[in-house]
Amino acid sequence: MRILAISLLRLGDLILQRPLIEGLKKKDPQSEIHLLINRQFSQVEFLFSGLVDRFIYFDREVFQKSCGENEFNIFWGVQHLKDFVSEVNCNDYDSIYNLTHNRLTAHISGLVQARNRYGIYSKQGGFFGLTNPWIQFFNNYFGRPEAAGFHYTELLAKSLEIPLPAPSIRWRRPNGKNLILVQTLTSDPKKNWSLQKYAQLVEKLKTQCMVKVLGASFEKEILVKYFSEEDLLICGFEEAAKNLSEAALLITGDTSVKHLAALYEVPTVELSLGSSQPLQVGAYSNQSVILQTRVGCGPCPHSQPCSQTSHVCGDRLSVECVYEAAHMLMGLKRADWEVFAQTHQELNLFKTEIRSLLGWIVQCLSIGQKDKFEEVMQKKMMIVEELDRRHQAMNKGVSHEQRTRKLSDSGPQAS
């Protein structure tokens, strides 16, 4: 069996989808899997070693420019897409899995020939593959309060009928390892903690452990203003992964490195600031603690700048608090998270966990917040039961080809 998986969003999405590719391989160990991704993410090939047989690269940036910029001939873009699809069609696919539910991937999924399709695809101007109740829930509610407690990875797996591999259930500190990695910068300034505070944290941690500050080459100019050359670990994506595999702990914001650490089962202290959504895209891991300051303006919208005169959520997160959490997660201090939550009542303290029946959950230990998040988990349980029931009923009598509605202009499915 030959399978095409399509993933044309961001680097972080590719990392989050790695368990799905593993699930496809376990579902049919003899299958040949091809993965279609954006060309600028070719550095992720090593992550899929032993799972993906062939990578197919799409020049999304060039294609988008050809459709919207004056110096490009739009007909060249159309012909370029036709040639690309013709080349892909030479592979004779049994199944296509659309891992990124937007219009572009829906159109490509509809153009590529295959016997079976999972996820949305377009055909003769309409969008199909939307009958699965899990897909409907994902498209309608992911990123909104109605889907709180559902992780992106598990929702996508449910939507595409892919079994997720069972994660490790143990907390661990790697024997003999005392390397702490710190990733300071995110893709959104609202999610960044103060570099001055990070520098203070690094100095405190260095008294007991080896600490390195991860950064990409384009970040070095700003990082050297706060950290010494000896503290910095400027590297590419694959080298960062290698260092993570040797680390005892990662401290970071809402970054793709956080999701990479989850793949390597590295314990993580996540600083949830700005527009970070810890109840939906926290680390898919049993090894993560999330610190989120309680502010009336957060989490704020992704597409808008900070509305405050100062970065309130970051200002209220102290160096001492992060330092203490790191020590507890490293095993350097007895881990009593209940006491930690009582001491730091300015925070929401979350621990992530993956359970065999309920899947990914976020346990809230903060004073005055436990009942609220227990309700979130209870609601999740009821939604899981109802959507599974509908899915079973659909499989008994409703065609997978049935069209249900058009795609909306917002949400995860919009390009």
Beta-strand content estimate? 15-25%
Q: Helicity range of the residues?
A: 25-40%
Main beta sheet: strand number and arrangement?
Answer: 8 strands, mixed
Give me the secondary-structure category.
alpha/beta
Q: In angstroms, what is the radius of gyration?
A: 22 Å
N-to-C order of helices and strands: EHEEHHEHEEEHHEHEHEHEHEHEHHHEEH
Shape: globular
Any idea of the CATH topology of the largest domain? Rossmann fold
Corresponding CATH superfamily of the largest domain? Glycogen Phosphorylase B
**Overall average residue pLDDT:** 87
Count every helix, treating DSSP H or I runs of 4 or more residues as helices.
Answer: 15
Question: In words, what does this structure look like?
Answer:
It is a single chain. The chain has an eight-stranded mixed β-sheet, sandwiched between helices. The model is unreliable at 169-175 and 398-415 (pLDDT under 50). It has 15 helices and 15 strands. It has two domains: 2-129, 3-Layer(aba) Sandwich (Rossmann fold), CATH 3.40.50.2000; 179-355, Glycogen Phosphorylase B (Rossmann fold). It is α/β, with parallel strands linked by helices and 415 residues long. The protein is globular.
